[in-house]
Write a structure and sequence with these properties.
about 180 residues, mainly alpha, 3 strands
């Protein structure tokens, strides 16, 4: 097996529940503002959009990504972070590659510090955890060419490395 690829999953745990609940509340507020703004015009709409944009950094989004003209799945994002508050990942016997963005490496987001972040995932993947730096912020991990190139490169390397054992693995799998 070539292993698993982890695109900067969040560290979860009892000590992280409040953080996810705060994020959920922001998404709930943004969703309500977005829906309210759909029926507004003029100065009232401008004020609502400004309020939306002020909340963008709390969602790890650039301000220009949050507008009343562009819908984002705020209710879905709220549900996702509420579920993260309760989620506890299990250990895996598979080796893994962990992609880590600038957001975690430079501490510019609200994730735990990098050393704790890496230690958390290393503890869950005792068969081995390779670490890959992913350029850009967390929310850009699969949006830009540079990020996709880094991901494709890692996948191609994993395929090359496992090519020698690939025939044996295929023999063990039912047709």
């Amino acid at each position: 097996m070539a292993g698993l690829f982890l695109l900067e999953p969040a560290v979860t745990g009892d000590d992280q529940q409040d953080r996810f609940q705060r994020h959920a509340e922001v998404y709930r507020r943004v969703n309500a503002l977005w829906h309210r703004g759909q029926d507004q015009q003029g100065a009232e709409r401008v004020c609502t959009e400004q309020e939306l944009r002020r909340l963008a950094p709390e969602m790890n989004l650039d301000e220009d990504m949050v507008t009343l003209d562009e819908w984002l799945p705020f209710a879905v994002l709220e549900a996702e972070v509420r579920s993260l508050a309760a989620y506890r990942p299990g250990r895996s016997v598979a080796p893994a590659t962990l992609f880590v963005s600038d957001t975690v490496r430079d501490g510019s987001g609200d994730e735990v510090p990098e050393a704790r972040y890496i230690a958390h995932w290393r503890g869950l993947y005792p068969a081995g955890l390779a670490q890959r730096a992913m350029p850009g912020r967390h929310m850009e991990m699969v949006r830009g060419d540079e990020q996709l190139d880094a991901l494709v490169s890692a996948l191609c390397e994993a395929i090359s490395v496992s090519a020698g054992t690939g025939d044996r693995e295929r023999e063990l799998l039912p047709a």
